[in-house]
Amino acid sequence: MAPIQILKLQNTFKPGGKVFEVERAAAEHSGLVQMLLQDFDDSDLEAIIPISVDVSDKGLAKVFEWMTHSKDLPKTTDDGSVRGPDDSAVNWKPLTFSDWDKKFFDALDSEALYEILIAANYLDIKPLYELGCQFVANMIRGKTTEQIREILNITSDFNPEEELRIREQKALVKDESETAEKN
Amino acid sequence: MWGPGGLSCIIRFICHVPTGFAGINGLITYNNVRGLGDILNVIPHGAEFVRGLSYVGRAGTATFAWNFFQFAVSPFLRGNLLAITGLVDLALAGLLVAGVVLERRFLPGTFSGCNGASNWNNATDGRNFFVVANGTDAFGSDGPNSICHNIVQIWVMAIVVIILYLLCGVFNILLGFGGVAHSGPGSRTAFGLPPQYDIDLFGWMFGPLRCLLKPVVYVYKHLRASLYFACRYVSKYMSRKKKLTLRPTKHLRPPKNAKGESGNHGGPRLPLELAIMIVRELHYADLVNLSRSSKALRAVFFGSRSPEQAMKDLRPFVCGGEISCARCAVCKIQICPGCEHRALIPLSGAFRHLRACRPACSRCFYKNHCVQRVTPADYARARGSSTRRQFDPSWVSELRRYFQWARQRFRSSRNVETNSVGAYDVLDEAICQNCATLWRREMLAEVEAESLRELQLVAGRKLACFRCRTPLTGVRWWVDMKGWECKWDGHPGWAPAT
Fold first, then answer.
1. Distance from B256 to chain A by nearest Cα, in Å?
2. Which residues of B246-256 are buried (b: 16+ CB within 10 A; e: fewer)?
3. What ipTM score was computed for the predicted complex, to two decimals?
4. pTM score above 0.80
5. pLDDT (tens digit, 9 = 90+) per residue, B127-164?
6. Where do the F-box domain residues begin and end (chain B) (predicted)?
7. How many domains does chain A have?
């Protein structure tokens, strides 16, 4: 059995970023890490891999938590193919929420969710940002404005004039679409 | 074969007894009174009284005979013949009116007035008409009060006949002339009969009369139309500066101290590819709700610089990426089969005007809506060729809407609690998920506000006359579906200055 390789990753966007230790198998979910590793020798793995994304350490920790838990899931390589845990080619299947994923995303507040999406997009973790987007869409779909505010625990910061402007913009959209249809 | 004279027949049936009573008794009384000698020359209004008795007696008897004859004939009359019958009815009623008025000069107007008949309107030589009449064999010997009572009874019956005959005459004239002039109620065709069987014996008489009256009618129509046109033009000219004001509903009205956007929300924005990935799973109504939830959240999804533009950019990706032409009937946003709801939406006043009223130029308006009334549907039919009917989507859609409404009414009658609608003021339309949650009153307010907004957009555009297609500059006239001028203040009466 091959020894477990640990990678050290640090967010250098702000000074004093925390160094995270992540299993290589988990870190390879990230297209960015895969690309960086191509330039590293095995002897260089002890070095800290710098990443630069405008996300807090807390948010990044959540991302690495998900990566560690999902290390056995198929990974997308930089050539677009999908590889299984034993590095064999597998067919890509759309991801579905596991029970763990549901608990993971349910526990996040809106700020953490936003940071995970930003970080997943930066690190190019396709399964994570796909699941995140799916989760956000599920949260919004079919909900009224008040329900969205309630779910995300936010309050309206519009004044009445702005509310009126937003309503009027619907008429504008309609008008433009009609013009396009005529053309 | 019953015609429009059926109503006349019914009235005549009711008139049989009163006309017979008033006519025959009136004639007998007249003959008896004439035999009283010179007292008629000395009592107040004696000559007029006798003349009144003569009119009531003779005209009443003639009316009785006419009534009897017409009772059998009038059910089959129509057209000019019925109208002439009506004129005869009115003439007879006029004679009776004259008689009744003349009689009233001498007689007491009530039965109670006869209680002192022996002292009523004594002659200049001190004699009393009723006392003298009581002394003759012709009137019997029941006393002066009884004679007075009998004569007043004939007088009252004559009044009853007058009322019934006035009604009968007016109805006959209206139904008769109306039946000839058009094919509406009262015409032969309205009774399910073919028009070629109309009996129009006196039509030759009315032809020349119409020719004689034509210039008078022409002058009258144009004078009336010119006056109306001038008044309306002045009214529109005086209010041309007045802009169409939106009447926003209570929840839309901004406070007086609101000044632009407040706060700084220049925070990070979600990468576009992620935003697209999210909105692919949403419908347009979700996007609207998202943008209205909070300024901060809107900035995350759509940015803070131009969220409206970002929303428009993302619009092609919503509803599964299908470009949908369907719109919510209430708030007009994009809907797709996946997010539409069917509901009965209330029609606001503005909505009706938006759909029904059309702009016209001064010339067409004066010609077709002041001098005479031509409906837009008539105009559309006239433009089509005789062999090929022009497709008129307005009446087709009206018909379709009516059947939709009728279907909903039928359904609602079976389920009153969920779909109770009172009148033809709802449409079964596709609406978005947001509008589906509104109460009827809120929905009506939304429809009203949306229609007013659309009217304001229309008011700012260049319009053409719906008849001659001339671009409208200056005054704008609005015509409704019935061909009348629509005076609703929501229609701009003057073209905007360019």
1. 9
2. eebeeebeeee
3. 0.82
4. no
5. 888 888 888 877 777 788 888 988 999 999 999 999 99
6. 269-300
7. 1
